[in-house]
Amino acid sequence: MAFERITADPGQMGGLPCIRGMRVTVSAVVGQLAAGRTIDDVLADYPYLERADVLAALEYAAAAVSERELPLAEPA
């Protein structure tokens, strides 16, 4: 997965995916949205984030849990 606004550095935040190299994790942003906060609420809490950052976090989370087709084993 290649995401321009999402970074993962083993030396920062335990390697968790973060927004643009900042110490704001994708899970923190998505967790706030899941708790019922709006994008505007999140942006008020993190004024250095941009709307596109929040949307990128959602896109990353969706891709991370997307369904995958797995090949079925051939009968023996």
Beta-strand percentage range: 5-15%
Structural class: mainly alpha
Low-pLDDT runs: none
Give a short account of the largest sheet. Answer: 2 strands, antiparallel
Please report the number of helical segments.
Answer: 3
End-to-end Cα distance, whole Å, is 35 Å
- Write down the secondary-structure element order: EEHHH
In CATH, the homologous superfamily goes by the name: Winged helix-like DNA-binding domain superfamily/Winged helix DNA-binding domain
Shape: elongated
- CATH third-level topology: Arc Repressor Mutant, subunit A
Short description:
This protein is mainly alpha-helical. It has one domain: Arc Repressor Mutant, subunit A (Orthogonal Bundle), CATH 1.10.10.10. It contains three helices and two strands; from the N terminus they run ββααα.
Question: If you had to describe this structure to a student in words, what would you say it looks like?
Answer:
The protein is mainly alpha-helical. The chain has one domain (6-64): Orthogonal Bundle (Arc Repressor Mutant, subunit A). Helix content is 39%, strand content 5%. Helix 1 packs across helix 3 (51-64). The longest helix is centred in the last third of the chain and has 14 residues, at 51-64.
